[in-house]
Amino acid sequence: MVILLFVVVAGALLTVAGVRRRGTDLPERIVAAAVTWLPADRRGWGEALVAELAAVPGRGRRWRFAAGVLRITLFPPAARPGSAQVTASVAALVTAAATVTAIIVLPTMSVFVAVLGLLVTGCATAVASRWQGFPVAPASLAAGALAVGGVLGVVGAVLSVAVAHPAATRDPTHLYAIALALLLCGYLIGGLAAGSRGGPDGVGATADRAARVGLWGAIAGAGLSVVVSAVVLPLGAVSGLVPPIMAGAALLTAVVVAGLTRSRAAGARAGLLVAVLGAPVEFAVAVIGQERGSLVLTNAYDMAAYPRSGFPDVASYLLSDALGGNIVSLAVTPVFMYAFAALGAAVAARSPGWSRTSARRRPGRTPR
Amino acid sequence: MGKRDRRPSAQTVAVLRALAAEPARWRYGYDLCTELGLQAGSMYPILMRLAGRGLLETGWETERVPGRPPRHLYRLSSAGIAYAEAIPSGVEAAPVRRSRPQLGGA
Fold it and tell me: Which of A166, A291, A367, B75 is the most exposed, having the fewest neighbouring CB atoms within 10 Å of its CB?
């Protein structure tokens, strides 16, 4: 399931990463993009895999080869043999214990805990396979901390609701539980991959300045978005303010990064990364804000719908609605944020003022 | 190989034996995949580990083939040949699921 999720994330990143070469089929594009995510000490093998695919005949074989390369990218031979197995075993045991605990203590959360635990086990195993030891680049560390912190924040917020209002997390179809687990794992992969891409400095063996600026810009944008939301929401503001705050941060980041690097793609990627790093934390802030806010029926629709909803109390009804809305928001946020960011980056990258300033500062750079 | 030496997997044994069959011959990774019926996702990690342990020599094709980039080539190093020969004949290799004629070999 993790590999499938990775394929989906990688597919989405393919378009974002700008791997658009004419005369190449999809397996070749997947392999070309996937090998850029190999650990630095395996980069030469990436070139070998790309070259080998060129000699693989037949569509089916090429797809199987590309799938194998994705597997290698996700689970390369570990620098420390055995570390991946140990990580997988420990994570699986923790997942089993957490699932059993959830079944006993919080039955409405058992499916979510089990699915998320399995997915995180896969992610942890992948991280252990790819781990090259310390030191870790500060940007990678910051991006990883935001990604992990965001996921923990969401889990904490949802568990908080489940403990106080179990009926709010009742999900007979398990659709929302599974969707939330998949989304969180996707965000985790996106955040960790953004920080680990490239060479030993975490952002590119060839000193890819655009990627470095983009990553730091995204970290700053996500941090700004989270801080503003955390300050605004407890003041009694509605959670509807969260998307505009994040959109503003993504747009600002995209414009600044595109202007500094004169790269539209770098700006758009940075804007998307703001959403990837910031959305889970925003989710947690919004849900906790709603849980601690005034849980009363305020509009005619809810007043009419609540008596027929089957919820035992108004708080559960409103929080269930809020959780569902935030899960949907978690799913669509990257799409909208990327659209915003791409638009802003396109304008900023073409702006003559930015270009002239950037050109003066870096005479050796050529626009992309 | 010291303390870190571990018993090779059946798939690794199969790769070692395939390479040891003609130790002087350079082989393509995909040809080894087809010969042994292994997927790339299994074969290349084995090659990476063997190369990392100094059991495998690697190189790039020097002869240009129009329409495609040079391919990576593999053969056992002298240490790899010795290692392969030291594997007891009783140790099972992964079953070869499919055998194909070689498409080429440098």
Answer: A367
